[in-house]
């Protein structure tokens, strides 16, 4: 897919050459400057006149009218050089690549050195390009009988750089891996509930395990009964579909210790149970396994890059349905940890399945736990659709997650859990905990509940109810599943350093 070259032949008939242009002062560097010279300074003139915009994320396409072998030049505005971040570079590449895809090109060439700054070296720019390429090209195939005419795809990328070709190529490949894994997570989120049951998620995980050599364990209903997973089983009680608890292990250290547990909510459809959702609120609940998708996306990256860390992925999966046998408000259930739970709301099911999954992760030697879940509508009220809500019992672990999220361009914002909040989840008159202590601080109540099961193990909870699906297309993707947190989790694992 990627061909890396040092020298350029200006007579070669590229379909399109992508070039970066900085703002204030507007400047063309390296091979871009050479192109300008070939065109007797016309490019500089066009930049000055504003026909080629150097404003951040502006995309300008010009025809070379036969004066270069390349038919078209595509300029990507980068704004002020000092202010360019990895994130805005990725978005700028996404926008440029989307426009070329729409123009039905099959091969593009890029002068990658024209995007380098003091802060962003060729490894960063290569990664950003590879990732943007995968993300911007993503489309969910869907199920229409008559699919639109076969879309032409960009299948060849020629990269020009003065740097070591191996270095450029591996940066591009890593970016591509990150982007593709995010797309896998997007796909899982977009598949409807009738076509993605807990069994389907387990089968998908099986394929991932055999591709990457992960150790795999899938707990069946009978195993859960034996282990006393009363919380997960309660949520599954009204379903025709058997529940699954999926465990994938990547051992990157000699000894199995200090494992990072990635625990993802895998509710394949959430009706709300007897605390039934409204007819509008229920639509879209096929995406209630976005946490599981993020974890599986991260495992794909981990499988490709094989970091020297121990990782255990745990996915509790079922749908949340109604039947004569379904669990009800007022029921009291016993979780695997032994803690009893008064169910006040069957729609607060995510925290129940996660409770048993967190306990199971601890039994599997988890030294650190990150749980990821489309847990509450409350987090949307608190933070909107751009920020993932985060809660923790450990400052140092939270710092690590925060840095990873920043690097991935997937922002998180911390919410507190106070002692009074904990008292509220412990406030049942007849059980140890209650799963819905009222609407004040909804998102926090969800986090505080799961924290009761993490206990002393360092833990971060990520509520992605607002970020796992996007209503609109962005520079780097379509409307629908975003695959959020797959990259953050993979970066967290790759960089993990807790001074053990
Ligand atoms: N799956 C929902 C949360 C959700 C809402 C995800 C909107 C994506 C978009 C979750 O299981 C739920 O229903 N949470 C309730 C909790 C409440 C009953 C305590 C909520 O947030 O309303
Ligand atoms: Zn629910
Ligand atoms: Zn849910």
List keywords for this structure.
single chain, 500 residues, alpha/beta, Leucine Aminopeptidase, subunit E, domain 1, Aminopeptidase, 6-stranded mixed β-sheet, 21% strand, elongated
Describe the structure.
- Helix content is 37%, strand content 21%.
- The chain has helices at residues 31-38, 42-49, 86-102, 122-137, 165-190, 198-212, 221-227, 230-236, 290-305, 350-363, 378-383, 395-408, 419-425, 442-454, 486-495; strands spanning 2-5, 16-23, 59-63, 72-80, 107-111, 156-160, 215-219, 244-251, 259-264, 266-270, 310-320, 332-334, 340-342, 366-373, 388-392, 412-414, 433-434, 459-463, 469-470, 480-481.
- The strands form four sheets. Strands 7, 8, 9, 10, 11, 14, 15, 16 and 18 form a nine-stranded mixed sheet that branches. The chain has a six-stranded mixed sheet with strand order 1-6-5-2-4-3, covered by helices on one side. The protein has a three-stranded mixed sheet with strand order 12-13-17.
- α5 runs antiparallel to α9 (290-305).
- With 500 residues, the chain is of the alpha/beta class.
- The longest helix is centred in the middle third of the chain and has 26 residues, at 165-190.
- The protein is elongated, with a radius of gyration of 25 Å.
- The two termini are 40 Å apart.
- Bound molecules: ligand BES and zinc ion (ZN) (2 copies).
- Ligand BES binds next to loops.
CATH architecture verdict of the largest domain: 3-Layer(aba) Sandwich
Helix/strand structural class = alpha/beta
* Distinct small-molecule ligands in the complex: ligand BES, zinc ion
CATH evolutionary superfamily of the largest domain: Zn peptidases
The averaged pLDDT comes out at: 96
The biggest beta sheet is recorded as: 9 strands, mixed
The CA-CA distance between the termini, in Å, is 40 Å
Query: What portion of residues belong to β-strands?
Result: 15-25%
Radius of gyration: 25 Å
Helix content: 25-40%
* Number of separate domains: 2
Oligomeric state of the chains present here: single chain
Shape: elongated
Which CATH top level class of the largest domain fits?
Alpha Beta
Uncertain runs are none
Number of E strands? 20
